[in-house]
Specification:
Elements: E1 4-8, E2 12-17, E3 23-26, E4 33-38, E5 42-50, E6 55-62, E7 80-101, E8 112-119, E9 124-132, E10 139-160, E11 165-179, E12 182-201, E13 206-218, E14 229-241, E15 246-262, E16 277-297, H1 302-320
Antiparallel strand pairs: 1-4, 2-5, 3-4, 5-6, 7-10, 7-16, 8-9, 11-12, 12-13, 13-14, 15-16
Family: Belongs to the bacterial secretin family.
Pfam families: Secretin
Domain Type II/III secretion system secretin-like: 144-298
Length: 340
């Protein structure tokens, strides 16, 4: 409904429409072809009467695009839309640790360790060492680390015009959670969950794409040993022409952690406190980019496909007996309906 098709009108003397109101039959001034415009759902026919007396009848069915299957069990003709999705994640991290690290406690069990070697045959002491394992001397912390990571996911979807397409790419982590009557498995899912609904207008050749995306990734496990998850969600509608692509960017996540440890009181003194404590800092920047390239899939009609297959068969058979090559075969345009 709302679409237009053409039928060659060469040699047609008159025509008759069956059930009126289903389609609008238009004949331009040049008289080269009929333009059939679908007005409302239904079934009708078109009878063409040629100048030489021959008659050709067309059966026309107009379908409602909002209904995927008609009452008669037919499937309406809709364009197929191909969607190429590219997901890029840029991650940059930096951390440093600087200062003097003092022990958290002095004394108690394990303050010293003694090792001795005794010869049982002569009952003589071969060697003996004593080590103080829990002492008040600090250690020097000098560490710095930086790096980046790039994660690329690519997928291709084909869906009917106006039909939603969904892709899930990622994984899950299983964690055992203990309880009073036993343990159970808790799943943490991560990855990309993208829903895309394209709508294509053949007349204006514009396409409208509705996008809903949920992108998540695991974070480092904390002191409990259970990893966390960062999530980014978006929902938008973009209208563009064929050949254009969609780039969704600016999904930036920044995390900064800073900690300080050392001797109580002394490590809090400005400037001098560096000699009695350690400063730690970690920064992480994550940026997500999503590229979507829509394309209309043009299928070859069955009649033209059969003609191409028959032409290839004739060429192969004719070439196998020493006939001319492909460059010597003349391609002829198909005749209008009713002509052989």
């Amino acid at each position: 409904m709302g679409e237009q098709v053409t039928i060659p009108a060469t040699g047609v003397a008159s025509y008759s429409e069956g059930r009126p109101g289903i389609v609008d039959v238009r004949l331009p001034r040049d008289g080269a072809q009929f333009v059939i415009v679908a007005l409302q759902p239904g079934v009708t026919s078109l009878l063409l009467i040629y100048a030489d007396g021959r008659q050709v009848r067309y059966a026309i069915t107009v379908l409602d695009p909002e209904q995927s299957v008609t009452a008669t069990g037919g499937v309406p003709a809709r364009e197929n839309i191909r969607l190429d999705l590219y997901f890029v994640q840029l991650q940059q991290s930096y951390s440093h640790q600087l200062g003097l690290a003092f022990p958290g406690s002095i004394g108690g069990a394990g303050i010293a360790r003694v090792q001795a070697s005794l010869d049982l045959t002569t009952f003589s002491l071969q060697s003996a060492t004593a080590t103080i394992t829990n002492q008040a001397l600090p250690r020097l912390d000098l560490a710095q680390a930086s790096g980046w990571a790039r994660l690329l996911r690519q997928a291709m979807l084909v869906t009917a015009n106006g039909q939603e397409a969904e892709i899930n790419s990622g994984g899950e982590v299983n964690i055992v959670v203990s309880g009073g009557f036993g343990g159970q498995i808790q799943r943490i899912e991560f990855g990309s969950n993208i829903e895309v609904t394209p709508r294509y207008d053949p007349e204006t050749r514009r396409i409208e794409v509705a996008i809903q995306a949920d992108v998540s990734d695991l974070t480092e496990a904390g002191t409990s040993g259970v990893p966390g998850r960062t999530r980014t969600q978006l929902s938008t509608v973009v209208n563009l022409e064929l050949g254009q692509s969609i780039v969704l960017g600016g999904l930036v996540s920044r995390t900064s952690r800073e900690s300080q440890g050392g001797l109580p009181g002394l490590s809090q003194i400005p400037i001098v406190g560096v000699l009695f404590g350690t400063n730690q800092r970690a920064d992480e920047n994550v940026e997500n980019l999503l590229f979507i390239v829509p394309t209309v899939v043009q299928a070859v009609p069955r009649a033209q496909s059969d003609r191409i297959a028959e032409a290839l068969r004739i060429y192969e058979r004719f070439g196998s007996i020493g006939g001319p090559g492909l460059g010597d075969i003349e391609l002829i345009e198909p005749s209008p309906p009713g002509y052989e």
